[in-house]
Amino acid sequence: MLELFLKVILYSNLNILAIFNHSQTSLEIQMKKISYFLFFLLLSCSVFAQSNIPRIAIIPQPVYLKQGSGYFKLPENITVHAPNSNEIQSVISILSQRISPATAYHVSTTKNSDQASINLIINDAYDSKLGNEGYHLSVRDSGVKISANMPAGLFYGVQTLIQLLPKEIESKQLQGNIIWQIPLLEITDYPKLAWRGLMFDVARHFFTKEEVKKYIDAMAKYKYNVLHLHLTDDEGWRIEIKGFPKLTEVGAWNVKRIGEFGDFIPQKPDEARNYGGFYTQEDIKELVSYAKDRFINILPEVDVPGHSLAAIASYPELSCTPEAINYKVRSGEKIMDWSGGAPPKALLDNTLCPANELAYSFMDTVITQLAQLFPFEYIHVGGDEAPINFWQKNPQIKELMLREGIQDITKVQGYFTRRIEKIVESKGKKMMAWDEVLEGGVSPTTAVMSWRGMKYGIEAAHNQHEVVMSPTTYAYLDYMQSDAISEPRVYASLRLNKTYEFEPVPEGVDPKYIKGGQANLWTEQVYNIRQAEYMTWPRGLAIAESVWSEKDKKNWPDFMSRVEEHFKRFDIAETKYSPSVYDPIFKAGKTADRKLTVDLSLEIEGLDIYYSFDNSFPDRFYPKYMGTLTVPIDAKQLKLITYRGNKPVGRMLTMPIEELKKRAKL
Ligand code: ACM
Fold first, then answer.
1. How many separate domains does the chain show?
2. What pLDDT is stored for residue 341 in this prediction?
């Protein structure tokens, strides 16, 4: 009886997946409602959720999925039949690397397609629906078949296949007692957007080549295809440039400081400058090739004219400010005053000088070498947050303005950007830059990365620029994921549910100009790779779905239930992720007679919060939050923990009452 009920529930769950993927008739809408009901019933039945039949939980959600009944069991000797090409051989080798450690199964190729357990097929005729990255995956009793127009599609089909195997496949150690089976099904899948990016800032803190590879591995699982490396900033120059050795001898190193970056005690002359690192050109080639095998392009960014202190500390002659001779690579001390808004007032001149011909010959050398090292068609040249206060008083800049007929100091950056674009184009590449470059006047050939919200991206698309949306509003992975009491302090928060609202193609914009979307991980407050992972996941899952899956497929509760399945995978893979989605949202208030109150809410339905005011650690035998709490007058701390049923799902949080009083203005 129990089994029958389970089958009914599972079957309706499968229907949902198929229904999600069809255009809707009213009958289907009714069915969808019924299926939603059954789906949530399934989720709430923890007895069934614990059954050993895993739920299909693919991220990003595929376009079309129809499940059959039964499973295909992987044989211990997995044979793969595939066309013979280097790209496909690397797909097979990655498949083998993903399957073998946990299973100890052997993957080999066969010339006989009938005998193959996995057939990888390049379509004879181009299927325009699938495009260059789509695939069709079919799992039948006889085996697995993945077909695609291009090798990228086969690679994405393989990523989906791995997600269909039991979660233990993520382990690097042999897992006993697991039946390595895949549900019988048909999937047709292709991305919504061509640019699906993550930016990793390796300048503020340096991450080794091996750490970047690890980051790439995790990206590949979720079908990202662009890794934007922010290679230079005030805190470090991270790439060897032949002819400018000081960029890495001097520019890659600063003083190690930990704590809250931004206001560190100014550097002292006798402090060791041994914190940092850089990639040699051989390292870069290795990373590019590693990423390419995973169908990821690396977009290099050299951020100019602002954010250039590491270059200027190495070669002060790139600046127009004579005091630059004394500058040091930043270690996190204050160098900008943001109190007046943007552009910031620089306390020292961190800009390449637009009136200095040396700056252009330097950039020519840098861009020449970037163009040789990175096969991707774009080079990013930054352009954000360049201060003008040093330029305002500089005689060379005044002379430039007179000579070029530039009326307004804010247009000086435009002159610089246009010259840089000529250099980029002369190397056969397209230039991309942050949205500030629109203000100085650029040609429509400049591709724009919109970060200050979506509006500059919309404006740029209207002016026929190519646009990648990476707005702070939805896609800034350096922002805190929940309350400041539980996260490394950054000036803003971005919770998972907000990230999931990211929709890179705005209404009213010609979609042909929106190349895609990207999330950015700035690393001022990220000191190690574990924290980089923590900041990326699970928000990187929400972004992956936002750039791959159709808008009308988005469904927060369904997404969240899949995220929880991926939390288990992350645990097994030992990839760090943030549990902040379970942290309550606090709203401090006060009664008419000035008593402190606090309201709590959660991003996820169906959870309970237990709390204490007596400094002890609450569990589910403590008071459950049922509505506004009035804080006892002598309380010092509110401690809380989130549960699903009788299992804790969140972490223990401590909210100081003083902090609540501050927020309530009491
Ligand atoms: C940026 O966040 N300054 C591009």
1. 4
2. 86
